[in-house]
Amino acid sequence: MFTGLIEDIGIVKGISHSRIEIETKLNDISKGDSIAANGVCLTAIFVRENSFAADRSPNTDKLTTLSKLKKNSRINLERALKLSSRFGGHIVSGHIDEMAKIKSIEKLKQFYRITFSCKENITKYCVDKGSIAIDGISLTLSSVSILEFEVFVIPGTFSGTTMQFKKPGDKVNIETDIFAKYIEKFTSKKTNGITFEILKNNGFM
After folding, report:
1. Residues in CB range of 185: below 8 A, 6 or more apart
2. Which of 43, 56, 77, 185 has CB atoms 3.0–4.6 Å from 60's, for a disulfide?
3. Rounded to an integer, what distance in angstroms lies between the CA atom of residue 89 and that of residue 31?
4. CB-based contacts of 162, cutoff 8 Å, min separation 6
């Protein structure tokens, strides 16, 4: 589990058809650790000084931008949340739903307004003022339509993530709020609505 608060901007040292090696300033990574790379949950298969490597599945390549990265590409990194950590951002699983495309980036006085185009299977889980993870970054939705959504990004988040290097037309990884998916499942005809038993069985009570 992750929070969407980026800890480091890593640099891709090497990438093949199924493996990616990333240089990072994070110095306490061990083999087997889970690390979110542009929002994608990866498992470190070996660790070197100032870098780690992880394998990618065909499904990861299909749903995310990782396979499109090149050597020296910058990438957002976040280590898995510890139970003793303070919880910021929102609950992020590291399981990408779909890619979206940057439609526009507008610099305002104190914020950046960024608009994305996407498929309806993304926006159906989005609500105004709700949470969304974009390339692993926890952000708040400011506007949602059928095939588009918008966020405002503060300068600190913009300069502390790969968002500063993005331009219109670039694709990003999207993970919608997992609670929206639970609600959809609980309220579907198959489950006959939310009951105390359903909530209890799924850990909400």
Report:
1. 191
2. 56
3. 26
4. 9, 38, 74, 75, 76, 135
Distance CA 122, CA 124 (A): 6
Question: Do 98-182 and 8-79 have the same topology in CATH?
Answer: yes
- Beta bridge partners, 47, equal 52
Tell the CATH topology of 98-182: Elongation Factor Tu (Ef-tu); domain 3 (2.40.30)
CATH tag, 8-79: 2.40.30.20
pLDDT in tens, the chain (205 residues): 899 999 999 999 999 989 999 999 998 899 999 999 999 999 999 999 999 999 999 999 999 999 999 999 999 999 998 766 677 778 899 999 999 999 999 999 889 999 999 999 999 999 999 999 999 999 999 999 999 999 999 999 999 999 999 999 999 999 998 888 888 887 776 555 566 676 667 766 6
What is the phi/psi pair of residue 100, to 5°?
A: -125, 165
Q: Is 41 exposed, middle or buried (0-12, 13-18, 19+ CB in 10 A)?
A: buried
The domain segmentation of the chain, as residue ranges, is 8-79, 98-182
Nearest CA among 54, 63, 8, 10 for reference residue 30: 54
Model pTM?
Answer: 0.88
Dihedral of the CA atoms 29, 172, 94, 110 (nearest 10)?
80
The count of C-alpha atoms lying within 13 angstroms of the C-alpha of 69, restricted to the half-sphere facing its C-beta, is 31
